[in-house]
Amino acid sequence: MAFYLKNKTITLSGLLLFTLFSCTNKEESKEAAVPKKVHYEMYQASEMANFMNAMYAYNMQLKNEIVAGETPSLLPLDLLTLHSAEMTKGKQRHENWEHFATTFITSQEAVIDTVLQTNLKQRYNTAITNCISCHKTVCTGPIPKIKKLLIP
Ligand code: HEC
Predict the structure, then answer these.
(1) pTM of the predicted model over 0.85
(2) Whose C-alpha lies nearest to ligand 1, atom 33?
(3) Which end of the chain is more exposed for a tag (fewer CB within 10 A), N or C?
(4) Model confidence at 26, in pLDDT bands (50, 70, 90)?
(5) Which superkingdom heads the taxonomic lineage of this protein's source (predicted)?
(6) How far is 63 from 65, CA to CA, in rounded Å?
(7) Residue 110's closest CA among 122, 100, 98?
(8) In the chain, pLDDT over 70 holds for what percent of residues?
């Protein structure tokens, strides 16, 4: 870390990298709060970040299927991971996390519910809107990327 402090340019580009690839957020300060089993390298993706990227890929696949007129019926991800995954150092679940996570999970499950009569595209867009709702409260960085999942 001392190395970074000596060179402002490197510190700045490091910070820029950090902001680009994760949420815009405060410095890593609360490391001591959660006991860690795994040692993470700087910038290494957290379990939660990996899970988010898997959800992104899954929903991109759903979008392609729905646009192609298909009816998706598979959900290969364990959405309860939202409640358990370790997050990037310094990030914590806020007090409304439970609410946002549960609302999102219900809407994501509704996309593959073939019994539901409501419009499939609408159900899918509701799930993506719920991704964005949580992100507005906790992690604004990826919102423009998530918006690309919406079906116009
Ligand atoms: C309950 C809140 C919540 C919901 C719902 C949610 N996210 Fe996230 N998302 C987060 C948090 C918090 C992070 C930061 C995780 C970390 O850095 O450990 C994140 C990170 C991300 C990232 C960046 C991952 C990276 O490489 O740093 C992407 C992309 C993302 N989410 C997409 C999505 C998509 C797509 C959905 C819906 C299918 C979604 N998120 C639903 C809270 C949420």
Answers:
(1) no
(2) 52
(3) C
(4) very low
(5) Bacteria
(6) 5
(7) 122
(8) 73
